[in-house]
Structure formats: structure tokens, C-alpha cells
Amino acid sequence: MDVPDLPDVERLALKALRRWLSPTVTVRVDTPEDPLKSLPLVVAHRIAGGSGADPTLVDRATLTVECHAADRSTASELARAVRAVLPYAARHGFGDDTGYLGTTTVLVEPWPTTDGPDHYVFTLTVRALARPRRG
């Protein structure tokens, strides 16, 4: 029996953000030692997992996304862009050879979690799903 590889929803979300956000935005899965050197910066990573009735068919996870910028307005704008990109990518079947993004839902809307003095961070929480490609 040929079992498809389970796609990694976190990796696909990062790829979608890199594709549709401005090329000046650094997108990472972990926060760099000195985030100020990487602004503007988006850090997206899995904070919880989960699966559907059959975990061999989907990878489902809750992702936290932090949007770092030098000023509050840019951090907010970046968070709104992230909020738009992930559902857009899912609606358009964005993926790679392992799978594609399925339903993506914003669970917690962007809100300011760090307000200066060095930089600003808006954070949002997203529930995302990835399905394997069928060949």
C-alpha cells in the first residue's frame, strides 16, 4: 500500500507567507536572537496540533503568528497582511508536491502584544489544515 506523506501545515504556511508578503519581510519559524536586526519580521510556528477523524489524511494545527516592525503602524499593517494571505493561499490551493493548504481560520484577530520602545509586535492565532496531494 502506497501511503502519501503527510504535509506539514506549518511549513506550507511559512511558504505561503514568503510568497505573498513583501520581499523585504523576513519570515521565520523561530524568533532570532536579535529580532531588531531582522525587521520587518514575521515569526509563525505551531503551538498546538490536532487531527481530523483520520490523521493520515490531514495535518491540522494552531499557529501563532507574530508580526514585528519598527513602528506600530507597520506592525499592524503586517499583521493584517498575514491575516489576508493565509486564507487566500488556502482558498487557492497553495501547496507543494507533498500537499496543499486547506481550510484556514483566524481564531484570534491581530492585537498588539509588544508596544515599544524598541519595536512593536502584533500577534494573531490561526487554525490551519493541510491535505496531501492525491496522485
Please describe what this structure looks like.
It contains 2 helices and 5 strands; from the N terminus they run αβββαββ. Helix 1 packs across helix 2. Strands 1-2-3-5-4 form a 5-stranded mixed β-sheet, with helices on one face. The model has no long low-confidence stretch (mean pLDDT 91). The chain is 24% helix and 39% strand. With 135 residues, the chain is α+β, with helices and mostly antiparallel strands.
The shape is: elongated
Query: What class would the helix/strand composition place it in?
Result: alpha+beta
The helix count comes to 2
Note the run of SSEs as H and E. Answer: HEEEHEE
Mean pLDDT: 91
Give the biggest beta sheet: 5 strands, mixed
Concise account of the structure shown:
Helices cover 24% and strands 39% of the residues.
Q: Characteristics of this structure?
A:
single chain; 135 residues; alpha+beta; 5-stranded mixed sheet; 24% helix; elongated
